[in-house]
Specification:
Length: 183
């Protein structure tokens, strides 16, 4: 995308395209090691995780399964409430499988903590989480994110899968949305 076309919409870039790709490579190396000799299914959370799933999975030089879930957190505006509804469930049974959830961001952590518990209740072998981003608030709820790309400040961010009103998901980097866009 032409940066000039959106330069007024963003305050600053917080994670560059190169930083994202390098970190994904590092995390993939760790995951390859951790799951050596074990089955692995990646479960992406739509829609935010599409970029992370596409890039991360291509660094895994091994067999993996890929599946997707779509969930919606009820809540007012930008705050999630922890009440989660499944909009699209997994296509396949995951009994006995090792699941790695792929997420874009852990904010309050409410969505992920619900999702992890939900998947764990299906008789899986294991459930772990990989998230590209984590905000400080995530520390408040008990959700153990095993693989974290970057810890970032509280600001609302866009890009690399993350949207504001469904836009900006296609940016190859992560940026802070300019305040005048939503205030
Ligand atoms: P949580 O339940 O508060 O952790 O909410 C997580 C979800 O809220 C993420 O999967 C995102 O879809 C959305 N979200 C949280 N923070 C941001 C942000 O800064 N930009 C865009 N979406 C966000
Ligand atoms: Mg969203």
């Amino acid at each position: 995308m032409d940066l000039a076309a959106i330069s007024n919409d963003i305050e600053k870039i917080v994670v560059s395209e190169e930083q994202i790709q390098n970190r994904l490579k590092e995390m993939a190396a760790q995951v390859l090691k951790d799951y050596e000799g074990r089955d692995l299914i990646l479960v992406g959370v739509l829609k935010g995780a599409i970029m992370a799933m596409a890039d991360f999975s291509r660094h895994l030089q091994r067999h993996i399964d890929m599946d997707w879930m779509a969930v919606s957190s009820y809540g007012s505006g930008t705050k999630s409430s922890g009440v989660v509804r499944i909009l699209k469930d997994l296509d396949r049974d995951i009994t006995g499988r090792n699941v790695l959830i792929i997420e874009d961001i852990v904010d309050s952590g409410l969505t992920l903590s619900w999702l992890k518990t939900n998947l764990e209740s299906r008789g899986v072998g294991s459930v772990e989480i990989l998230s590209i981003l984590r905000k400080p608030d995530a520390a408040k709820v008990e959700v153990d994110v095993k693989y974290v790309g970057f810890d970032i400040p509280k600001d609302f961010v866009i890009g690399y899968g993350l949207d504001f009103d469904e836009k900006y998901r296609n940016l190859p980097f992560i940026a802070v949305l300019a305040k005048h866009m939503y205030e």
